[in-house]
């Protein structure tokens, strides 16, 4: 469903993502893990066709993200780090708008919007302005706009950041429900989240994939936290060592 | 076309839910009413003077010339300052609050986004033009002005406004900051407004080119009641230039 090959993104001399490859098959929920600044958001933006990669390729739902961007856009649902809401619209108006630009036919808009209001528990706030919603509701509207057109692939960038524990549990439940029909990529730096909802883990650090594995195999007897810290800190140590060697210490 | 319609709907909704459109329309009508009243007052004095000495060598004062033309020309200046208020948020705001990411990852072409947004401003400008058109039309109740220049002048105002709006949108697509967008469009539009002023010290082709490029000179023909193909083509080209630059600017951001 998703095939990423040696994806890289450079801004001038700065390398945001140097080498990311992984794959995901249908129905999987992939936890995309990494410390802040590892290149998670950049990678995700490339997969969502927002940023063009500097090199490498990826196919999403069988289409190339560069040469067939529009086909990819028809088949993905994408929630950026901050939910892309229009504050002056009500939830209902907003979802109708998204339904239209995502290519849902006019006859189906109302039905699809009702469906998604129901799935994301938004019915009670449907007539509220987006700017008056609490963070938890904003995030839910963000997820609603990502799934309204039943995309094959759903890409969520840190959907639970800044939420209270109760809201986090709600959102996780929603994500777990998505797996039945969709392939999900979930970027996060919250480890328990991955353990509870994901079937597969991809850990990236400094713009490179350091681990790609099914969650069961990876954590045999160890906690995900240990694995994560090993991957990330051993990388960090190497970097530190080579630096201290270079400076003659 | 369906996508353009969706963007247009959203854009007009934003205009009328946020107070921007109301403020701009009200401000425009308020200033228009004030100028109209002043010009009418001045015309009264001229008419009174004329009737005291009808053979004083003065031509018969003409309502169109004294009131309507001056009124339209003043409104062109007002548009230079109000249009950036309408266009500054068009694209800058989408970029700042991250909703551009939604549009850019939806199966929409950049052209559709640009066109939908432009039609949104066009709708507001249409209301503005219709509202200020009421004043000169009132003259028909109390006097007998020529109707043709009144209507063609309104067309001139509308075309002038649409061209400036498309340029304002192009400027707005270059920045995330609305204030920067407003100031730079105002400067750009003012420059365009006075582009024909060095003509007096120039001659030949240079002067002709500047005269042709000036939106004020082009609008003047329409205000005089002459609807030339040349004028309409000029304004339509200016609109296309603005739309083209907006489209290019957004396309460049999408793939950078």
Description:
- The complex is a heterodimer of chains A (249) and B (256).
- With 249 residues, chain A is of the alpha/beta class.
- Chain A is built from 9 helices and 10 strands.
- In chain A, the strands form 2 sheets. Chain A has a 6-stranded mixed beta sheet, with helices on both faces.
- The longest helix of chain A is centred in the C-terminal third of the chain and has 23 residues, at 224-246.
- Chain B has 256 residues and is mainly α.
- Chain B has one domain.
- Chain B has helices at 2-17, 20-52, 63-96, 99-104, 110-142, 147-172, 178-193, 205-213, 215-223, 229-254.
- The chains are: A alpha/beta (249), B mainly alpha (256).
- Chain A binds chain B through residues 45, 48-52, 70, 73-74, 76, 78, 80-82, 84-89, 93, 97-98, 100-103, 106, 145, and chain B through 2-3, 5-7, 9-10, 13-14, 17-18, 97-108, 254-256.
Quick recap:
The complex is a heterodimer of chains A (249) and B (256). With 249 residues, chain A is α/β, with parallel strands linked by helices.
Outline the secondary-structure elements.
The complex is a heterodimer of chains A (249) and B (256).
Chain A: E1 2-11, E2 14-24, E3 29-33, H1 40-47, E4 55-60, E5 63-64, H2 69-75, E6 76-79, H3 91-101, H4 106-119, H5 135-147, E7 153-157, H6 165-178, E8 183-188, H7 191-197, E9 200-205, E10 208-214, H8 215-218, H9 224-246
Parallel strand pairs in A: 3-8, 3-9, 6-7, 7-8
Antiparallel strand pairs in A: 1-2, 1-4, 4-5, 9-10
Chain B: H1 2-17, H2 20-52, H3 63-96, H4 99-104, H5 110-142, H6 147-172, H7 178-193, H8 205-213, H9 215-223, H10 229-254
Helix pairs in contact in B: 1-5, 2-3, 2-5, 3-6, 3-7, 5-6, 5-10, 6-7, 6-9, 6-10, 9-10
């Amino acid at each position: 469903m998703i095939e990423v090959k040696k994806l890289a993104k450079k801004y001038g001399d700065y390398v945001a993502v140097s080498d990311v490859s992984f794959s995901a098959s249908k129905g999987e929920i992939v936890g995309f893990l990494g410390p802040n600044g590892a290149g998670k958001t950049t990678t995700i933006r490339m997969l969502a066709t927002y940023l063009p990669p500097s090199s490498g390729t990826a196919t999403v739902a069988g289409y190339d993200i560069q040469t067939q961007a529009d086909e990819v856009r028809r088949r993905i649902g994408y929630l950026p780090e901050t939910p892309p809401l229009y504050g002056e619209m009500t939830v209902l108006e907003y979802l109708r708008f998204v339904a239209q630009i995502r290519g849902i036919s006019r006859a189906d808009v109302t039905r699809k919007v009702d469906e998604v209001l129901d799935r994301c528990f938004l019915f009670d706030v449907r007539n509220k302005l987006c700017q008056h919603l609490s963070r938890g509701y904003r995030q839910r509207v963000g997820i609603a706009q990502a799934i309204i057109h039943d995309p094959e692939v759903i890409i969520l960038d840190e959907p639970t950041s800044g939420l209270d524990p109760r809201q986090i549990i709600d959102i996780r439940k929603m994500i777990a429900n998505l797996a039945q029909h969709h392939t999900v990529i979930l970027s996060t730096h919250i480890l328990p989240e991955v353990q509870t909802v994901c079937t597969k883990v991809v850990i990236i650090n400094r713009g490179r994939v350091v681990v790609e594995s099914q969650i069961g195999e990876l954590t045999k007897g160890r906690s995900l936290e240990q694995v994560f810290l090993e991957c990330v800190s051993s990388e960090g140590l190497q970097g530190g060592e080579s630096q201290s060697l270079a400076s003659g210490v | 076309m369906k996508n353009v319609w969706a963007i247009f709907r959203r854009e007009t909704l934003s205009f009328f839910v946020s107070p921007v459109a109301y403020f701009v329309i009200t401000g425009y009508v308020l200033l228009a009413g004030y100028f109209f009243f002043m010009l009418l007052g001045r015309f009264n004095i001229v008419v009174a003077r004329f009737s005291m000495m009808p053979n004083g060598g003065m031509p018969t004062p003409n309502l169109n010339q004294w009131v309507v033309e001056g009124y339209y020309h003043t409104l062109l200046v007002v548009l230079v300052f109000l249009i950036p208020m309408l266009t500054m948020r068009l694209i800058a705001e989408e970029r700042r609050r991250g909703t551009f990411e939604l549009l850019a990852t939806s199966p929409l072409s950049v052209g559709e986004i640009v066109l939908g947004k432009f039609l949104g401003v066009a709708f507001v400008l249409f209301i503005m033009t219709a509202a200020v058109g009421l004043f000169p039309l009132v003259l028909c109740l109390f006097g007998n002005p020529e109707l043709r220049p009144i209507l063609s002048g309104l067309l001139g105002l509308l075309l002038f406004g649409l061209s400036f709006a498309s340029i304002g949108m192009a400027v707005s697509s270059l920045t995330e900051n609305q204030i920067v967008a407003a100031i730079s469009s105002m400067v750009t539009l003012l420059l365009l407004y006075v582009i024909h002023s060095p003509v007096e010290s120039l001659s030949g082709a240079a002067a002709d080119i500047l005269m042709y490029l000036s939106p004020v000179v082009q609008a003047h023909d329409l205000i005089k009641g002459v609807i030339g193909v040349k004028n309409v083509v000029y304004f339509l080209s200016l609109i296309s230039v603005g739309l083209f630059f907006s489209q290019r600017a957004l396309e460049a951001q999408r793939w950078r």
